């Protein structure tokens, strides 16, 4: 029997493979006409067989997690949240810590990743994710703050915390000085954060974007029977990305 660590690693690898497949599939949704040489491969018996098998396996895994895993995890998370010590005198003490936002100097609005992707397909040079020699060493998690490209298209530019977006060719860093005209941006959607609260000793920013992937994911959770995992107080729930400075 495999160890729990091995199983979790396999699940993580499987999840990354699914995402990679989605990146291959996304351009097909953009094209209005599928070229004949692509259509030929999509209609091959091998592809149709493996697609059918993969769909069956994925449906089985979804049912398995739904019936045996999700409910138990939900109970454990709820139990853990109830047993955690929360200092009621500290505002937002029970907030889950989000990843760092993106700091960058203010710049003119850039073309969106969707437009870049669409243009690359029309030009016959489709964008491909960055091939990393050591994926585990890549520390950036989020999207390009200029065009919104996902992290799969971003690479480490100098090994010192500066990153570069392959689609729009802009560079940015997570450790930019906040003085001057620097903006703070959501790492999930690239939207500039709004100042939500000006507390004594710290500032609270949040992402106002109703289409932010982080917000939409939590909105689905809130609308389900798992909303307790988002609870921050007796009557408040946390759906949006927050950053406390």
Overview of the molecule:
The protein is of the alpha+beta class. It folds into three domains: 4-83, no CATH class; 85-98 and 194-245, no CATH class; 102-185, no CATH class. It has helices at 4-30, 36-42, 45-83, 113-122, 213-222; strands at residues 102-105, 154-156, 162-165, 171-173, 182-185, 194-199, 202-206, 242-244. The chain has a three-stranded antiparallel β-sheet with strand order 2-3-4, with no helix packed on it. The chain is globular. The protein starts with a helix and ends with a strand. Residues 86-95 and 176-180 have low confidence and may be disordered.
| Contiguous uncertain segments of 5+ residues | 86-95, 176-180
The count of β-strands is 8
The chain-level mean pLDDT equals 76
Give the radius of gyration: 21 Å
Q: What is the number of helical segments per DSSP (H or I, 4+ residues)?
A: 5
Q: Which structural category do the helix and sheet elements fall into?
A: alpha+beta
Name the beta content range: 5-15%
Q: What is the molecular shape?
A: globular
Provide the spatial order of strands within the biggest beta sheet. 2-3-4
SSE arrangement, N to C:
HHHEHEEEEEEHE
Largest β sheet strand count, sense and barrel closure? 3 strands, antiparallel
Number of domains: 3
Q: What is the CA–CA distance across the termini?
A: 46 Å
Helix content: 25-40%
């Amino acid at each position: 029997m495999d160890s729990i660590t091995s199983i979790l690693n396999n699940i993580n690898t499987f999840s990354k493979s699914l995402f990679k497949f989605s990146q291959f599939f996304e351009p097909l949704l953009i094209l209005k006409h599928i070229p004949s040489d692509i259509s030929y491969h999509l209609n091959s018996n091998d592809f149709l067989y493996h697609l059918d098998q993969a769909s069956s396996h994925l449906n089985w895994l979804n049912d398995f997690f739904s019936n045996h895993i999700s409910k138990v995890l939900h109970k454990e998370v709820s139990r853990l949240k109830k047993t955690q010590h929360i200092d009621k005198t500290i505002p937002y003490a029970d907030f889950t810590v989000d990843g760092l936002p993106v700091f960058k100097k203010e710049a003119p609005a850039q073309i969106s990743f969707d437009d870049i992707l669409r243009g690359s397909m029309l030009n016959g040079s489709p964008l491909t994710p960055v091939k990393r020699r050591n994926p585990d060493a890549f520390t950036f998690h989020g999207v390009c703050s200029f065009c919104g490209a996902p992290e799969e298209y971003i690479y480490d530019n100098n090994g010192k915390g500066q990153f570069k977006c392959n689609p729009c060719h802009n560079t940015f860093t997570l450790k930019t000085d906040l003085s001057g005209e620097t903006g703070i941006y959501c790492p999930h959607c690239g939207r500039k954060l709004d100042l939500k609260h000006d507390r004594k000793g710290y500032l609270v920013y949040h992402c106002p974007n109703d289409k932010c992937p982080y917000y939409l994911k939590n909105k689905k959770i809130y609308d389900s029977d798992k909303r307790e995992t988002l609870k921050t107080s007796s009557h408040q729930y946390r759906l949006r990305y927050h950053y406390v400075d």
